[in-house]
Write a structure and sequence with these properties.
The complex is a heterodimer of chains A (about 240) and B (about 200). Chain A has about 240 residues and is mainly alpha-helical. Chain A has helices spanning about 5-15, 20-35, 35-55, 70, 80-115, 130-140, 145, 150, 155-165, 180, 205-235. Chain B has two domains: about 1-90, Rna Polymerase Sigma Factor, Chain: A (Orthogonal Bundle), CATH 1.10.1740.10; about 110-200, Arc Repressor Mutant, subunit A (Orthogonal Bundle). Classes of the chains: A mainly alpha (about 240), B mainly alpha (about 200). At the A-B interface, helix 1, helix 3 and helix 4 of A face helix 2, helix 3, helix 7, helix 8 and helix 10 of B.
Chain lengths: ~240, ~200
């Protein structure tokens, strides 16, 4: 009779659960017949397992059913809501884009109309016509590209009077200016106010976009809320 | 409605179908958690977490035993609960010695409000076994709860605790041996038919 080791206990435990192969089970059962210690261990294991199996079943102290909140279930979204949300998003994007376009265009126009100092000379008598000439020059391609080849080769001293002479009709007569009465020098005159630049995107379009964004956003919110309320009432 | 139909509906998102499954299995889940954790409140928390996790992952259930699948989920929930409990330890209910060690005597023996007669009546088998289960290492405890208390097959236990079948076999044998040794200290509390004979190994 050998002293049982843990391997034997493991085998006995598996025999108890019917988890040994037929050959292993037969071999162990023949040992059990001759080894009383092994048999006693098997009895102990059997009784222990029996005790565990007869352990009283404890009932759940409460129900563990899930609420929709616990399960993270959200109310179904009405079909119109995604469309309305998309419309809101699109209208908002277009509105922002339009506003940005208008602002940038206005800023660029103002920059183009601003007087450029240090060009066109400061000679007396030509001050009044300076801004008009510069304004024209700013919007026209370079003079050299417009002139015939023979003119392009002429020196600038001869070209400038020619260009000035071609600016017809150009009113070179000084207009009565109230600043003259106050004795101010012509250089300190305020620049003539530029004509109000018309925005490339009309305000009506902007207002329309704003109204669409607001209506769609509010409608999506109201529909979602009404749908959630009815869903909650149904699932109570 | 049969279980497989309820599972199909739950997989399609029906919470009502899932709650029917909860009602059918909540006792098994709670009992398993209670035997692994040894505390009713923790077991209730673990059971609730089990069902929440089960609902969220029910689409991963690919057939087979739904009970075994739930027991695998509750095992994980119990491990999480034990880890949480380890991070935030509470005052132990077991009496302690002056050195801070748990006393071997179970708490119900130290309760001055209970007479020996009441002790005998107060399902002593359950208390003795739970005490011995509580003193097993958690990996042995889980295996013995799943195999011997819930009656799962070795393969199902192996899947639940993510360990090879050979390891389950070994852990189960060790757990049974340790329980046997522990229960011998409670011979007088056990009904005569359950009394174990003297130590033989």
């Amino acid at each position: 009779m050998n002293t049982p080791n843990f391997r034997d206990v493991e085998q006995l435990s598996a025999l108890l659960d019917g988890k040994l192969s037929p050959a292993e089970a037969a071999k162990l059962e023949s040992r059990l017949r001759s080894d009383r210690t092994l048999q006693a261990i098997l009895d102990d294991l059997t009784q222990t397992r029996s005790l565990l199996r007869r352990l009283p079943r404890r009932k759940a102290p409460r129900n563990f059913t899930l609420t929709r909140q616990m399960a993270g279930v959200k109310p179904p979204t009405p079909r119109a809501v995604p469309t309305l949300r998309f419309a809101t998003l699109l209208a908002t994007f277009l509105l922002v884009f339009s506003l940005a376009t208008n602002t940038l265009t206005t800023a660029m126009r103002q920059a183009a109309q601003a007087p450029v100092y240090g060009m066109g000379g400061g000679g007396g008598g030509a001050e009044d016509s300076g801004p008009a000439i510069m304004s024209e020059a700013a919007t026209e391609p370079p003079a050299a590209t417009l002139l015939p080849p023979e003119a392009a080769s002429e020196p600038m001293t001869t070209l400038v009077p020619t260009l000035l002479a071609e600016e017809q009709p150009l009113d070179l007569q000084p207009t009565p200016d109230p600043s003259l009465k106050t004795g101010l020098a012509p250089d300190s005159e305020p620049a003539p106010a530029p004509a109000p630049a018309s925005a490339p995107i009309p305000p009506a379009w902007l207002i329309g976009l704003l109204i669409i964004a607001l209506i769609c956003g509010v409608a999506a919110w109201l529909i979602s809320r009404a749908s959630e309320r009815s869903w909650r009432a149904k699932t109570k | 409605m049969d279980e497989s139909a309820l599972i199909r509906d739950a997989q399609a998102g029906s919470l009502d179908a899932f709650n029917s499954l909860v009602l059918a299995h909540q006792d098994i889940v709670f009992h398993t958690a209670l035997r692994i954790l040894g505390d009713e409140d923790q077991a209730a928390d673990a059971a609730q977490d089990t069902f929440i996790s089960a609902f969220k992952n029910i689409t991963s259930f690919r057939g087979g035993s739904f009970k075994a699948w739930l027991l695998r989920t509750v095992t994980n929930a119990c491990y999480d609960e034990l880890r949480r409990h380890k991070r935030r330890p509470t005052v132990p209910l077991e009496p302690e010695t002056s050195d801070g060690e748990d006393m071997d005597t179970p708490r119900w023996l130290a309760d001055p409000g209970l007479s020996p007669e009441q002790l005998t009546e107060a399902d002593e088998v359950e208390h003795a076994i739970q005490h011995c289960l509580d003193h097993l290492p958690v990996e042995f405890r889980t295996v013995v709860v799943l195999a011997d208390i819930q009656g799962l097959d070795y393969i199902e236990v192996a899947a639940s605790v993510k360990a090879p079948v050979g390891t389950i076999k070994s852990r189960l044998a060790r757990a049974r041996l340790r329980l046997r040794e522990c229960l011998q200290g409670f011979q007088e509390l056990l009904p005569p038919s359950f009394r174990l004979e003297g130590e033989r190994i």
